[in-house]
Specification:
This protein has helices at residues 2-17, 73-81, 100-103, 108-116, 133-137, 149-156, 170-178, 215-225, 287-311, 319-326, 331-341; strands spanning 25-35, 43-51, 62-70, 87-89, 95-99, 125-130, 185-192, 195-204, 209-213, 231-237, 240-256, 264-278, 346-355. The chain is an alpha/beta fold. It folds into 2 domains: 21-213, no CATH class; 216-362, 2-Layer Sandwich (GMP Synthetase, Chain A, domain 3), CATH 3.30.300.210. The strands form 2 sheets. Strands 1, 2, 3, 4, 5, 6, 7, 8 and 9 form a 9-stranded mixed β-sheet that branches. A 4-stranded mixed β-sheet has the order 10-11-12-13. The chain is globular, with a radius of gyration of 25 Å. It starts with a helix and ends in a 7-residue tail after the last strand. Pfam families: Spore_GerAC, Spore_GerAC_N.
């Protein structure tokens, strides 16, 4: 009986050793990692700490930024702990931002640290910061209710739904860095005067960023990947143009490698929407002609983008993974075969556009 009591007391004491009250913690809501400008350091770590307030009205979100340069993320965190009076809690960090200068080099070490930490959520959003991760985290948003909440609403589709925003989880990015036949792609957050702009993206190989996509290419990628339901499309027509609001979108693709023929990828996209704006006169009886114009211009633009990615030997669509899923054998043989096929791959983009009208104006 005495032994049981002693063991019970020891268990209670040990369980209390690692516990910190909530008022003795600093909650890290966002993490920024830049390339250090100091010669004797590799990284510059920025942590965005939430400062509790009495209310959550617009513009009352208070935060504190702390930064540290070091040769490893672990060293930066340990030194940062000497600059605050509370324990750093990473359990609420839902956004990780890399500086673009750092992404030009290998980020194997930084992503390894993020994935090994048991207190960092693997469902955190990943993004690139321009001009730096520190500048993005330091941007004060006038309407923000909670620190870092503006970015979470942008990526989680619980707030804005934009055809220009690509969302990438930390676990998914880490998986794509190791997956044969699928390359990572993350959004770029541009910080300016008290607001963010998120409409471009970066495509990676297995080590570093290789290609930046502009806003139109990012939108086209989202359509082909089927990452969204709502998007706006501009279509040239008779020396003018009109704009379509798409509210339903479906996309799928398959890679074919027939014997004695050139391999090809077939991308089928179905869209439905209405004409939202026009710079010319439109006739409600000519919907079929307008649909053909949309299908032709968008398929040409998508094929051009896919050829651009192919030229850089990048595959964020996952054509290689699709090929491997339908051709069984040893992993090394499948991968070598695909690497030989991809430069010769043709792209057949088939778009079916269904216009429901030209708007409410008759």
């Amino acid at each position: 009986m005495k032994k049981f009591v002693v063991i019970l007391i020891l268990i209670c004491l040990c369980s209390a050793c690692g516990f910190k009250d909530i008022d003795r913690r600093f909650f890290v809501v966002a993490i920024g990692i830049d390339k250090s400008e100091k010669k004797d350091a590799k990284y510059r770590l920025t942590l965005k700490l939430a400062v509790p307030g009495n209310n959550i009205d617009m513009g009352t979100a208070k935060f504190e930024l702390i930064t540290q340069d070091g040769n490893s993320i672990t060293d930066c965190v340990r030194i940062l702990k000497s600059k605050v009076d509370k324990e750093l809690d990473f359990g609420h960090a839902k956004i990780v931002i890399f500086g673009q200068s750092l992404l030009k080099e290998t980020i194997r070490e930084t992503t390894d640290w993020l994935n090994r930490r048991r207190d960092i959520q693997l469902v955190s959003w990943l993004a690139a910061g321009s001009p730096s991760a520190e500048a993005v985290l330091g941007t004060e948003i006038a309407h923000e209710r909670l620190p870092g909440n503006a970015l979470l609403l942008s990526f989680g589709k619980t707030g804005v739904e934009s055809g220009y925003i690509i969302s990438e989880y930390l676990f998914d990015f880490y998986r794509k860095k190791k997956e044969l036949g699928l390359d990572p792609i993350i959004p770029i957050i541009q910080a300016s005067d008290k607001h963010y702009t998120i409409n471009t993206s970066l495509v990676f190989d297995k080590e570093r960023s290789k290609l930046a996509l502009n806003m139109h290419e990012t939108r086209l990628f989202n359509i082909m990947k089927g990452n969204l339901n709502k998007v706006e499309i501009a279509t040239p027509y008779n020396d003018s143009k009109f704009f379509i609001s798409v509210d339903n979108l479906r996309s799928k693709f398959r890679v074919y490698a027939p014997a004695n023929q050139r391999p090809y990828a077939k991308i089928d996209i179905r869209m439905r929407g209405v004409i939202e704006e026009t710079f010319t006169h439109l006739d409600a009886n000519q919907l079929a002609a307008y649909e053909k114009a949309v299908e032709k211009t968008q398929s040409e633009a998508m094929s051009k983008l896919l050829e651009k990615l192919q030229k850089e030997n990048l595959d964020p669509m996952g054509f290689g993974l699709n090929y491997r899923a339908h051709h069984f054998g040893k992993v090394e043989e499948e991968w070598h075969t695909w690497q030989a096929l991809y430069p010769e791959l043709e792209f057949h983009v088939n778009i079916q556009m269904k216009l429901e009208g030209i708007g409410v104006i008759k």
